[in-house]
Amino acid sequence: MSTRIRYVSLGLLAVVGLYTGGWAYFSPTGWYANFPGLGLSWLPQLGPYNEHLVKDTGAMFLALALLTIVALREVRNTRLVQTTGAVWLVFNVLHFSYHVQHLDMYGTRDQVLNVVFLAALVLLSAVLLVPVSPGRRGDTK
Question: What stretches pass through the bilayer (predicted)?
Fold first, then answer.
């Protein structure tokens, strides 16, 4: 793997953490009613609104974003990048596992989008566990 792949994976995970976390923490009712955005709404089907749970979720995503931004700044630090990937992977595998067991509450489009996006987050996390190839360490473009 190249450092470029690390940059992309970490960058996308940081965006997910900032987007989800910032929205959930600073506008909990808006996030609950409208997540993931773009005219879709995936949370009300899962149960009643709980401000404490939503704000905790936002805080967790913001913490993940901070860790990811630190790793992004130290992209050649294999231990830090792999730890960041492992932390995201634990969350994303458990998150994915829950949602694939509860797809029946969504229409077909939302079922497909849930699986595609959550699986992509699992893959982005897992790729960070792969060390940089010795001949590719200088590849940062």
Answer: 7-26, 57-73, 112-132
- What's the burial of 111, exposed, middle or buried (CB within 10 Å: 0-12/13-18/19+)? middle
94-114 residue pLDDT tens: 999 999 999 999 999 999 999
- Answer whether 122's CB lies under 8 Å from 128's CB: no
Report d(CA 104, CA 127) in Å as an integer.
Answer: 30
Radius of gyration of the chain (CA): 16
DSSP string, 35-91: TEETTEE-SGGGS---HHHHHHHHHHHHHHHHHHHHHHHTTT-HHHHHHHHHHHHHH
Enter the pTM of the model.
0.91
CA distance 60 to 129: 21
